[in-house]
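Tutorial handout. Part one gives the primary structure; part two gives the three-dimensional structure as tokens.
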Amino acid sequence: MRVYLPSTLTAARAVLADRSVPAGLAFAVTPAVREWYAQSDLEEMEYAALLAAARACLRLLDADVSAPRRRLVFAADVPDAGVRVRDDLDRGVVEVLQPVPLSQVKAVHVDEPAAEPAVAAAADAIVAADLGSEDAAFVVDSAEGYELLWYATQELADLL
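Part two.
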């Protein structure tokens, strides 16, 4: 199963040192996503999972004020047995049960530096947006207008 694991540039340093992404919540094409996007193909559904992971990065950035204000998502292939679907939490949420070896990471998606001001504002607004503030949701949506750039796993050290 392809999973999208939200992270930060700070946490990615530990991933590089440990050669694995920690276990935890991630996003994937789950049965609920397939039902919600019934008219979409797999590529569109995976893109939706990537965007959900990018939004989750904002919550990580809100919690870690020292991290650079850029979203980072690891895309990895994990055996189905290593993932538990958690659609009870939200559509597309999965729990990765074991650390993911860096060799299973297929790509790293990161904001370009120009996105930092918008991402910083979105990280500051994400909790209010989650609680229903339309003004905060507008700020979060502004950051989501920046596309995440694609990097090969081998480029992670240079990116950091």
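Part three, for discussion. DSSP finds six helices and nine strands in the chain. The chain has one domain: 2-153.
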